[in-house]
């Protein structure tokens, strides 16, 4: 019990220090968020308009095929489906690229703030331009791994619920599995983003960055998990509060738009604070000399042991 309480206090302390660091760097971070807000808005608006148009056309064609009022045009329908898939893939890749660039900008800014230095916007852009490929590759790996994990989790929960005959026992078991998967997701999210931080700060990318992150956080996994859990619980409470207030005031009233803007701003602040926490956690693990020495010794041992010839006459 004392260990868990100490871990909670340490995680709260790290969250508080991260908040103070974020507040100290608020001008640079606000400028970064404003710069990235425009391309994100353009991408979201263009994608939404194009997708809604395609979906409306496809629904109209399906209805005409069902009613028989218009001869079916399968070639046109297949072409629209192809356009829809291409638009989805293009939007996904553009979103991953923009989100990675935003993460890099925040990570570099916070890393310099930890050294009590400031990076000019010109230097920041130049730094990102030189190093963006590795973090983007790592972000793609994280996306595909997370997508596979999410699909597996959903299939597991559905299999338990519907395979058990939709009884109270199957629902209780599915609820327990959901809680365990949620906690595992909190931990994996921390590890995955540490891989992105490693990819930004060091010469690693892809699976090597994720492996480096897993080695780096050894001995501090509980601290990283607890800090990430606190931030996700905070985000959950904020969004639940938003839905409750939205239901109470009515979703069609003008004040709802104000509330929506406030909640989106709070969620953006929480997301930025999480990145700051990840950077501080990376520095805490990186600045542990005993851990770094052990990792280097293990690396040297692996290289030496793999290079030692094995006599052929051994039994």
Automatic annotation (TrEMBL):
What is the protein's name according to its record? Uncharacterized protein
Residues spanning the membrane: 29-62, 92-114, 140-161, 167-188, 229-249, 255-281
- Is Membrane one of the keywords? yes
Q: Does the keyword Disulfide bond apply?
A: no
Arranged from A to Z, the UniProt key words for this protein are: Membrane, Transmembrane, Transmembrane helix
| Source species taxonomy | Eukaryota, Viridiplantae, Streptophyta, Embryophyta, Tracheophyta
């Amino acid at each position: 019990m004392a260990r868990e309480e100490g871990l909670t206090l340490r995680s709260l302390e790290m969250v508080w220090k991260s908040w103070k660091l974020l507040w100290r760097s608020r001008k640079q971070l606000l400028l970064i968020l404003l710069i990235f807000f425009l391309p994100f808005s353009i991408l979201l608006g263009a994608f939404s308009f194009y997708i809604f148009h395609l979906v409306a056309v496809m629904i109209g064609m399906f209805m005409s095929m069902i009613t028989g009022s218009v001869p079916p045009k399968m070639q046109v329908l297949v072409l629209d489906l192809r356009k829809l898939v291409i638009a989805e893939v293009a939007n996904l890749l553009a979103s991953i690229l923009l989100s990675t660039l935003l993460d890099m900008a925040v990570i570099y800014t916070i890393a310099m703030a930890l050294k009590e230095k400031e990076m000019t916007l010109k230097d920041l852009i130049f730094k990102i331009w030189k190093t963006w490929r590795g973090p983007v590759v790592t972000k793609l790996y994280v996306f595909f791994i997370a997508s596979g994990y999410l699909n597996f989790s959903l299939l597991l929960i559905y299999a338990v619920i519907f395979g058990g005959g939709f009884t109270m026992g199957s629902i209780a078991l599915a609820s327990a599995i959901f809680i365990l998967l949620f906690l595992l997701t909190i931990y994996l999210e921390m590890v995955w983003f540490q891989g992105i931080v490693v990819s930004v700060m060091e010469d690693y990318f892809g699976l090597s960055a994720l492996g480096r992150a897993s080695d780096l956080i050894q001995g501090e996994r509980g601290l990283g998990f607890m800090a990430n859990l606190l931030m996700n619980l905070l985000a959950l409470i904020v969004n639940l509060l938003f839905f409750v207030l939205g239901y109470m005031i009515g979703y069609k009233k003008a004040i709802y738009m104000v509330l929506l803007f406030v909640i989106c701003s709070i969620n953006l602040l929480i997301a930025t604070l999480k990145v700051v926490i990840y950077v501080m956690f990376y520095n805490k693990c990186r600045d542990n000399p005993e851990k770094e020495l052990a990792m280097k010794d293990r690396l040297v041992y692996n290289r030496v042991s793999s290079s030692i010839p094995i006599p052929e006459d051994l039994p």
